[in-house]
């Protein structure tokens, strides 16, 4: 199994999260505030500099009012 960081699939994942944030009209700072984290946390995962673990992913999707299952299903192929 190849590494996933910076893979095309990982890029699609990040693109979805960024797009969701923008569609909701939120800035990185606003998402970070909802998460109780610094803005740099959002910038780093959106930029692919750091990974999200599953719990963080669930927290991010909750902050974006998004269904995590839909995001994961879109990444299956």
From TrEMBL:
User: Gene3D superfamilies of this UniProt entry?
Assistant: lambda repressor-like DNA-binding domains
InterPro entries per UniProt: Cro/C1-type_HTH, Lambda_DNA-bd_dom_sf
* The organism's place on the tree of life at top rank: Bacteria
Q: What positions belong to coiled-coil segments?
A: none
Q: Pfam families under this entry?
A: HTH_31
**Residues covered by the HTH cro/C1-type domain:** 17-71
Q: What are the recorded GO MF terms, alphabetically?
A: DNA binding
Identify this protein by name.
Helix-turn-helix domain-containing protein
């Amino acid at each position: 199994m190849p590494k996933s960081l910076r893979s095309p699939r990982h890029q699609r994942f990040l693109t979805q999260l960024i797009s969701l944030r923008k569609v909701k009209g939120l800035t990185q700072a606003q998402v970070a505030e909802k998460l109780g984290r610094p803005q740099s946390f959002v910038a780093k995962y959106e930029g692919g500099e750091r990974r999200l673990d599953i719990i963080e992913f669930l927290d991010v999707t909750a902050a974006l009012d998004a269904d995590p299952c839909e995001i994961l299903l879109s990444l299956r192929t």
